[in-house]
Amino acid sequence: MTVKTEKISARIGSDSEMAEITKQVQKVVNESNLTDGSVTLFVPGATGSVTTVEYEPGLKEDIPHALERLAPADIPYKHHQTWNDGNGRSHVRATIMGPGMVVPFVNKELQLGRWQNIVAINHDTKERNREIIVQLIGE
User: Distance (Å, rounded) from C-alpha 75 to C-alpha 77?
Assistant: First the structure.
């Protein structure tokens, strides 16, 4: 079993905007000496996440709107009282979505569904350059 770790990045707008990173992840798999295994994706930081979604214009709007309903911007958060940074909702949204995921690969191909894309999401209140750790484990 071999382990390989890389980092990719994406510049992402604020308030739960998404960036499609499937091709970047597939490139890491292609350039590895591994044929079969799993790729673990992880976003360091408390206001980012990574997941899969059909990356199309409607869902690019629907996902942030759904997260706004779950953790709205216009309610008080105790986090604001502690840090006065106005991004309590960002932390709640990132916790709901989670910072990481695993995708298997077979014959160097990510095993994603037909409409499934890997996306990084920035829940913070300002645009950020998100780093994503890509760790491959396999043979």
Answer: 7
Q: Quickly list DSSP for 76-118.
A: --HHHHHH--S-HHHHHHHHHH-SEEEEEEETTEE---TT-EE
Given the candidates 3.90.1150.10, 3.30.70.20, 3.40.50.1000, 2.60.120.460, the CATH classification of the domain at 2-138 is 2.60.120.460
- How does 14-50 read in b/e, with b if 16+ C-beta sit within 10 Å? bbbbbbebbebbbebbeebebeebebbbbbeeebbbb
User: What's the rounded Cα separation, in Å, for the pair 133 and 36?
Assistant: 19
Domain ranges of the chain: 2-138
Q: Among residues 89, 88, 103, 94, which one has the least CA distance to residue 136?
A: 103
pLDDT tens, residue by residue, 44-58? 999 999 999 999 999
DSSP one-letter code for 74: T
The pTM (predicted TM-score) of the whole model is 0.96
